[in-house]
Write a structure and sequence with these properties.
single chain, 191 residues, eight-stranded antiparallel sheet, four-stranded antiparallel sheet, 14 strands, mainly beta, globular
Length: 191
């Protein structure tokens, strides 16, 4: 993810298969999917149908270490990220539902927040999936921003599938396919 609205930490570790879906994971309509199977300095391609290739910042490297499918992107947590999750004039967020998901291998579960996937503009974070210490968080803005924090925890050095969903009524988190015990009521529409 890319920090456009405020200073923040980026994810530290291996990131593979990040996705933004326009539905709460029961429908697989995808806005963006990045496989990170490229090599060298080749920008990651968008396989979700919109062809918005990612731009790499800070020279992250492709790696098989910690990746789920082929290569993943190795990020240092401070200055490396991929800017890619574009929802612009050729796309509209027409629904009040979403899924943000990725395969991650966190280098650390120390205190602090680390953005995994986000969609934001200057001054506004619309949706974000992030690691907060050993927990997972989903943030959604429909007027006021709501934050859901997992009861379950992440472990450093372990390949983990993480997802946050919102069906227009309830925010949910999933760690390795298991729904977390914590949920949060949330209504409205993403502007």
């Amino acid at each position: 993810g890319h920090a456009a609205s405020a200073a923040q930490n980026f994810f530290e570790g291996a990131l593979d298969e990040p996705r933004v879906l326009d539905y709460a994971r029961s429908d697989y309509s995808q806005y963006h999917i990045y496989h990170f199977n490229e090599s060298g300095t080749t920008p990651p391609g968008d396989f979700g149908g919109y062809n918005h290739a990612a731009a790499l910042t800070g020279a992250p490297t492709y790696t098989t270490t910690g990746a789920r499918f082929g290569n993943g992107l190795s990020l240092n947590g401070t200055s490396q990220y991929a800017t890619a999750l574009y929802i612009g004039p050729d796309e509209s967020w027409a629904s009040n539902a979403l899924t943000l998901e990725a395969w991650i291998t966190a280098n650390t579960v120390a205190a602090g927040s680390r953005t995994i996937v986000t969609a934001e503009t200057a001054g506004n974070t619309w949706m974000k999936l992030r690691q907060s210490g050993a927990n997972l968080q989903l943030l959604i803005k429909t007027g006021a921003t709501s934050t859901l924090t997992s009861a379950g925890t992440l472990s450093a050095g372990v390949l983990t599938h993480v997802a946050g969903t919102w069906d227009g009524a309830t925010m949910r988190l999933f760690i390795n396919g298991a729904q977390d015990a914590n949920t949060l009521a949330k209504t409205g529409s993403i502007p």
